[in-house]
Amino acid sequence: MSISSEHPQLQRQLYLLGYSQPLPVEASELVSVLLRDMQTALDRVKELEKEHTRLERDERVGRAAVEKSRGELHVLRTENNSLRSEILTLTREADKIRHEARGETYKWNKTIDDLRMSNLCLRAEGAESARKLDECQKRLEELISQKDPIPRLPRLSVSRPLDESLLRSTRVNVKMPPAPVIDLVDLSSRRITALEEEIDILESKLSQAKAEMKASEMDVKDRDLEIIRLNAQIEKSKPQRSAAIGDDSTEKERLEDQMEYMHEQNEALERQVKEQKEQFAREKDELHRRWVAAENERVRLSEQHQIPSAKPATPPLSAPSSAPPHMQAQSPELERLRSECANIKSLYAQTRDQLQELLKSGNAENRRLQQEAQNTESTLRQELDQLRNSSSAETARLRASLDKMPEYQRLAESREKQIQQLEQRLHSLSESLESTRQAHAKESDRLQQKLRDAQQRQGQIDTTLEEYKQLVEQHKKLDRSLKQAVGEVAEWRAKYDERDHKLSDLTRKVDEYRMSYKQSSSELRTCKRTLDAYGNDLASLREANEHLQRENERMRQEIEQLGRLKQAIEMSKDDYKRQLAKALSENEKHRSLVAHLQGERASLRVQVKAQFHLNQRLEQRLESVDPAYVVTGVNTEEPSTSVSYLDSHRLHRSATNLPTEGRRPQVLSRSSSAAHSTRSFEPRGYVDNELESTSSVSIP
Hints:
Strand content: under 5%
Number of helices: 14
Oligomer: single chain
Helix content: over 70%
Largest sheet: none
Order of helices and strands: HHHHHHHHHHHHHH
């Protein structure tokens, strides 16, 4: 009942699947099992396709996340490369600055050696000058002692004594000042001592500048070493970042500590710079105050010791119109004395002119020095205004350049002292000449002594002029060396300014690098956390991907099995189709056979009816002849004979029409034997039922 009820449903399913041929009943169970398996396989395939779609979507999401992480990693690598390039640029600049500092140090050392050599040469020249001055002094003393040009006047024979009132009237009550004495050795020794002190001051300033330069070089070297060490740490930490991410935090903390230490050092240096600036401001004020005081003192001294350029000449003494008789005898001597007095006056005028020229040149030189000092002061003031916020090294250089002011002041003071001494000499010489002019008549010995003194003074003046010329030459040399030193100081100041700018740029870049490093470290920590999350997600995605791969492999295997099963089903379906087509062709043949047999059945029915009527007539005839024999014969022989005849005739016809079919005669034989065994005579419906049962048989 179940197979018959499922058969139409299976037939409809096969029709929906595209199989229009009828399904045999015997194959219903197998087809139903195959359909159920195919339905289960299709459901499983749908589930696997859905799972595969979901896994592909998850994989796309994971790939998008991984691509995003790769983009962020690429950005971080780009930033890291840019920071590395900046560090390399800073390193190259630091190397260049260090190389320039070494060159400058070499130049400074060479300058120091040159200054030492020049100091030694100046000391040797000073010793030689002192020796020459001693020799000159001894030679002058020997010449004075050898010549002794003081002639004794011959005694005059007079008849009567001179009138003392006349002589007393010619005297002038002039207080003779002491004769000025110029100690050239002392002056030269003082000058040499002053020059040595200035050289010592310059050497101390140079050593201070060298110490500051060494300190700055050490700072630059420490900064370079710190930058190199940071570079090395960055280079070391870069390959280890992928292997040991946990060590980055320790290195970052160490780098942050180092950056904090550098920041503290920078603050300490800034405090030192601030203190140096304050000290520089105080020293500048003190130098300005000292310069103002020196300027006021110079103006006061110049006003106090100023000598007029045009001094009226002293009128010469004229002989009296009426000389007394006792004086006429002395007229040749007086004429000689007058000629000597005129010679002395001319010598005095010449000496005065020379001294005035020297005074004018000294005043011009003093004005030039004052102008240079004022120009230097204005230049220094401008530089001080411009470089008020400069570094400590620049402060030391400015202090060194400002320390040149005492040298100018000492030079001006020495010039003023020399001018004062020359004025004193001129004043004393004028007073002595005036006293000699007034007292030449009575004190010839004193006049001769004054002449010797004048000659000695002339020699001293000549030596003083020579010394002054030497001092002028030395001053010119010092001026040239000072200008050269000022030029070198300007060059060094420019170099140090450039270096300070570079250092400030480096400091700014280091600060920017520190800020960018802190920002990048924070971003790196964020990226690290994100990367850890991405790593965990990637690990889970990898596990899910592996699981999906295993599931895909299993599904692929199941799909392959299903494919093989489907192929087998297709093959079996083809076989069943072939068998079904064969069965259908056989069924058609059987139907044609059934139709033929039905026609034969109709003809046989007619024959059987005719034979039956004939048998009835024969029975009637036999009954009429011998009733007992006919009935027994008819009941025992005739029906079986007629039935056997029909069976033999049917088998003969079926064998004649279907010689190749072996199953139908067996069925017919079975039905005929059964009919013969069951009853001796079958009515008319027996053959119909047998034919109907035969027509309904189908071969699977």
